[in-house]
Structures are given as C-alpha cells and as structure tokens.
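User: Quick sanity check before I run a bigger batch. Here is a single chain. Can you write out its predicted 3D structure?
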Amino acid sequence: MSDKARTVNMLGALSLGLSDRIRAALEANGGQAAGVPSALIQIWFEPGSSIDHLRRLIGLSHSATVRIVEQLQREGLVEKGKRAADSRSASLKLSKAGEERAIAALAARDQQISRVVASLSESEMKTLGVLLEKIIFETVETEEQSHVFCRLCDISACPQDRCPADPDICP
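Assistant: Done. Predicted structure follows.
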C-alpha cells in the first residue's frame, strides 16, 4: 500500500471516529440527536432566523426542522415570534436555557476535538490549520453546503471573514 493510500485511509478513519465521538458527546450533553444541537447553535449565532433559513443551515427537511423547533419550544429552549417582514413566518430565538445548552454543546464538541489534537505541538497545530483550510475549501462546493458543513462550528473561533468553507472568501 502506498503512503498516499495509507494517509487517505487514516483520514477516513479519523473522520468517522471523531464524528462518532462528537455525536456521542452531544447526545450525552443534551440527550438528543445531533440535529438538535445544530439547531441550537445556529439559532444562537443567528437569532431571528426563520424555520426555512434554519432548515438550510442544518441541512434537514422543512418538516424535520419544524419537529426539532417544536421539541425545543416544549423544552423551553426556543421562543418563536413573528417576523416583521413576513408575519406568516416565525422568528426564532433561544431562551436563556437554550443559550446555555448551545454553549454546552459547543464545549462538548470542542472537548472531543481538543483531546484528539492534544499531542500536537504549536508548530504542528499551525501546519494542521493550513492543511485543514485547503482540505475544507476543496470539500465545500456551494454556499448551501458551507452552511451545513459548519452547522456545529464555533463562529467566534473561526470568523466569517476567514472561513475556509465559504467559497467567496478562499481562493
């Protein structure tokens, strides 16, 4: 087996393993499937979003997104209001408890990722960052994909003007 094939294989294994760890941490944190933390995080970063906008951000169908929002409302995590521009469309925002759950979800995600890269030096982390920017840029092909790709991202850690998943920013 070539070095390239081995590297590709290891990246695939890491991707699945890390994804499994993040999913398990999110479910343990809130006891819910990954669509719920994604919705909480996206509403937190974009308060006032409509259900349709949220659906595009988290990559689910309209009906699945409605079910998640209704569940979050029942749990007191999300509040629905009327949008000024279109009274038929709901404006979503998090309650204080919803904000706390979104912050906890990001912390659970970050903890799993930090454990994986803990053995890397500062120099290796810089190199990894450069490589990840290139890989992410090649992975995301459309703006719609970039939103779904970043649905669990900590926007404050990766500002929009430096987001490698945004096709308008990276070369």
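The longest helix spans residues 3-30.

User: Great, the batch can go ahead then.
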